[in-house]
Prior knowledge:
Blueprint: E1 2-4, H1 14-19, H2 26-29, H3 42-50, H4 59-69, E2 74-77, H5 84-97, E3 111-114, H6 118-131, E4 140-143, H7 149-158, E5 162-165, H8 167-176, E6 187-191, H9 193-211, E7 232-237, H10 242-251, E8 256-258, E9 302-308, H11 314-328, E10 333-337, H12 341-353, E11 355-356, E12 368-369, E13 375-378, H13 384-396, E14 400-404, E15 417-422, H14 429-436, E16 446-452, H15 459-465, E17 471-472, H16 475-480, H17 501-516, H18 518-536, H19 553-558, H20 567-600
Parallel strand pairs: 1-8, 2-7, 2-8, 3-5, 3-6, 4-5, 6-7, 9-16, 9-17, 10-14, 10-15, 13-14, 15-16
Antiparallel strand pairs: 11-12
Helix pairs in contact: 4-5, 5-6, 8-9, 9-10, 12-18, 17-18
The structure holds adenosine-5'-triphosphate.
Adenosine-5'-triphosphate (ATP) is lined by residues 54, 57-58, 61, 78, 80-86, 238, 411, 413, 437, 441-442.
Amino acid sequence: MVKITEKKKTTTTNKEKMNNNKKEPESEIFASCSFSSLGLHPSLCDQLRDRMAFEAPTHVQAQAIPVILAGEHVLVNAATGTGKTVTYLAPVIHHLQDYTPRIDRSRGTFALVLVPTRELCMQVYEILQKLLHRFHWIVPGYVMGGESRSKEKARLRKGISILVATPGRLLDHLKNTSSFVHTNLRWIIFDEADRILELGFGKEIEEILDFLGSRKSGSGSKGNEVHEFKRQNLLLSATLNEKVNHLAKMSLENPVLIGIDDKKVQPDTLLERKGSDMNKEMEQPIKMTNSSSADYNLPAQLVQRYVKVPCGARLVVLLSILKHLFEREASQKIVLFFSTCDAVDFHYSLLSEFQWSPNSQSDAEHKQQFLRCKTLRLHGNMKQEDRRTTFGAFQTEKAALLLSTDVASRGLDFPKVKCIIQYDSPGDATEYVHRVGRTARLGQRGDSLLFLQPIEVDYLQDLEKHGVSLAEYPLMKVLDSFPLYGQVPRGKKFVSIDLHPWVLTLQKALESFILAEPKMKNLAKDAFCSWVRAYTAHRGELKGIFMVKKLHLGHVAKSFALKEQPSLVGKSFQMQTKKRKRDQKQKQKGPMRKRKVASKT
Ligand SMILES: Nc1ncnc2c1ncn2[C@@H]1O[C@H](COP(=O)(O)OP(=O)(O)OP(=O)(O)O)[C@@H](O)[C@H]1O
């Protein structure tokens, strides 16, 4: 096994970045060579330059493309927004255009790209279409959940040379679409490999590999077919973890590791590969170190901050920061992450409809839209066509706010996103890395802001363990900048955020708005319930940081502009909490009671 490590990590601190917040130097992003020097076909190089305006390859492209062209199995770990998509698509196209006789549709699928989400599926397909412009005989296509099966069947019957797919729908077609020809399959690519597994597609992937006869013998495989071509499998992500190790063991043979440093791979597995070993099965698995101690590749020019907000003031602070950002720069794109679909729906309606005038609250005529920017939403419970519309709109808009769940956290490449706000904290550091990776792409500058309650600040230490450090956001300065009743509260020092006049006034206005709108009240209640459920679902080490029992549910309700904690859920939730406390007490008391009983008798 050979390892090729990416460029040296920059050691610029977050503070230095803020003082000197500009684009990453070109040399940090692009290699000093050309696409043609990597061995790609001239027409493909022309296409990359003329149609896509790619002048030079990025570092990961320069490292990985020759290795992929050489037919190696590859595991790529490179920062978000460094061009991994072209890294795997270009070599595949290079080889396919070179087949004699020319490939045609009747020969079915030659390359398969597996992705975790529908949006990423569409995005990869769009890039494929651009790259294939000069190679009309190579047909791109996609299959994914939410689309019409029968239309997909018809397309598969006609033949798709490079197929992009989500795992569930692909497996469906492998089982049920007999006209789907995959006997010529030569490449299987897992884009965002770790996410595919995290979403619970592990079983599907095993079945897919079995169906395609690409699961390695010795890993419980049914299929170990002899193929006309040597199969080549590729795994890529900005974050690789233990789960990927399993997939790598199953699907990669003697892989070349690109961008993976010594810390992430245990020394005994760094086998030097000899030329004659190339086709040998990987004798030893790749062992990643536990993800809790691994450093992640974050764009060096990304400015990362956190804001510490008491629970009850969260909503007001969110709205205030958004207002501040859009007033400072109207033409910008921001992505705002939530933990649940209900939370997205509530905040989307609130931000789209809430009107207010901080200067004359009594006069309805003076009310203005609180946030004047185009607002969009994206989550997994939306209809497919609405997801498609949002995805397209946020790609083309110059100024917009996108509210989303983690469905937008992986791989999506929205141009010119300026800032990422994580209003609800991510599941773990991996998700943090991917969420913030929607900005600061390809050397562009970008900001990220993580909301934390005072009881959650230990999360910063968890991120530190992964080499991610955040500076504090100057919240008070921002709150003080808003004029209230025509005056900016100058000179006064407000010690607590909850008692800041701007916060108090805006909170009151939000609560009145919600109270007056039954539709909004229901959305708020639903969002409250699912938010609490999501909070209880934090896994692993994070359970000790995001502890439901530390939450004040009345304050949580306030963060949904509810004057009271929703009674129904509140009751059942309180009952659960009480029961848990009772059980805990019982556990502690158990032996003592026994002793008491014993002493009585
Ligand atoms: N050589 C290049 N020159 C200029 N732009 C490029 C080049 N390669 C890729 N890009 C652009 O860089 C952006 C990021 O690429 P891509 O989405 O493939 O990144 P990624 O590494 O897959 O990110 P993520 O980890 O978030 O999925 C895209 O807009 C892409 O068009």
